[in-house]
Write a structure and sequence with these properties.
Layout lengths: L12 H9 L1 H10 L19 E4 L8 H14 L1 E6 L7 H14 L14 E4 L21 E4 L9 E10 L8 E5 H6 L3 H7 L4 E4 L12 E4 L2 E3 L6 E3 L6 E3 L2 H17 L10 E4 L8 E6 L3 E5 L8 E9 L9 E3 L1
Parallel strand pairs: 1-2
Antiparallel strand pairs: 2-13, 3-15, 4-14, 5-13, 5-15, 6-12, 6-14, 7-8, 7-11, 8-16, 9-10
Helix pairs in contact: 3-4, 6-7
Pfam family, one: TauD
GO molecular function: oxidoreductase activity
Keywords: Oxidoreductase
């Protein structure tokens, strides 16, 4: 089973040299990134920024300099915005880019979304037809989707996910919010931090994502520390989590209170949060995110034609102390 390590460490000498040659360029991109919805006040923590790159042609998905730039930004910041300079309704750039990250940077290949779906999942309101038989995913509604990480119910949750905007919300809804988990963790008490790192939580598998009928839930921890970077990681989706002990329940209550003060997609200012409106995240844009270092949320969708396409990849074990248990 593969350990959670810095991906560049296992690369060839040539690839590492390429990565080093692009560090200065990557730093320039990050420094020039636009601050989105910054927090205010003289005592506020430095505002978060979203680094930004462009892909003028689909061929950039296989150009090593571009691929390494994407890898470097994801490793450093855990979030990246890519603007496409061409129409790509079939998401060929995204598919090829992730394949290139697998080939050049040791990312694992994408995961299937369910027993009946492949790599891609269309995130759009569906009134009649569902992408899995008889079950509507929460992403297939126009309702708010509170703070969560993707696939928290998986024994091997994907490290990264990407969302490509095929049609943005034209009526002001569908704001994508992202919360930095390291900063969130700093706002929690030490006892809550410790409790969230214990394997004392039951996580149900939503019906639309059940791949094995004999496996309905797992038991594990919600938070962990990356032993190399010492950054805080998390897996979380409140509506499928049940605490199994009193201390776990108390920790979850404090976490809930902390998340409620930030608001999901409602533009409340917080030093741990950025908000991507349709103006920040228009058609032809891709957002990539480290699924363990950032929570994300969405407010209500106003445009029934809003259409995003999602891809998840690099599924590796979530670090834990006592182990993650599958429960039938």
């Amino acid at each position: 089973m593969r350990l959670l390590v810095h991906r560049a460490g296992g690369l060839s000498l040539l690839t590492r040299l390429h990565i080093r040659s692009h560090r200065r360029e990557a730093h320039t991109i990050a420094s020039a990134a636009t601050t989105i919805r910054p927090s205010t006040g003289s005592n506020s923590v430095q505002s978060l920024t979203v680094p930004y790159v462009t892909a003028p042609t689909i061929d950039h998905s296989t150009q090593q300099s571009h691929v390494l730039k994407v890898h470097e930004q994801l490793w450093k910041h855990g979030i990246l915005k890519i603007s496409l300079g061409f129409a790509d309704p079939e998401s060929r750039y995204l598919e090829q880019l992730v394949l290139s990250l697998h080939k050049s940077c040791s990312h694992q290949l994408p995961i299937s979304h369910s027993a009946s779906r492949g790599w891609f999942w269309d995130v759009r309101p569906e009134s009649v037809s569902f992408q899995t038989a008889n079950h509507r995913a929460r992403s297939e509604t126009m309702e708010e989707f509170p703070w969560h990480t993707d696939c928290s119910y998986e024994e091997l949750p994907p490290r990264f996910f990407a969302l490509q905007v095929l049609q943005h919300d034209r009526f002001g809804g569908g704001t994508l919010s992202a919360m930095n988990i390291q900063r969130l963790n700093q706002s929690l008490s030490l006892s809550t931090q410790a409790s969230l790192m214990r394997p004392e939580y039951s996580i149900n598998i939503p019906k639309e994502f059940v791949k094995d009928p004999t496996k309905q839930k797992i038991v594990g921890n919600l938070m962990a520390i990356d032993q190399e970077s010492q950054s805080c990681m998390m897996r979380f989706r409140r509506d499928i989590v049940t605490p199994l002990t009193e201390r776990a329940a108390n920790a979850l209550e404090e976490l809930d209170a902390c998340l409620q003060t930030t608001g999901a997609g409602n533009h409340l200012e917080s030093p741990s949060t950025v908000h991507l409106t349709s103006a920040d995240f228009p058609t032809g844009t891709i957002i990539m995110m480290d699924n363990r270092r950032w929570l994300h949320a969405r407010n209500n969708i106003n445009d029934p034609k809003r259409h995003l396409r999602r891809l998840r990849w690099d599924a590796i074990p979530f670090p834990n102390n006592g182990g993650t248990i599958s429960v039938e």
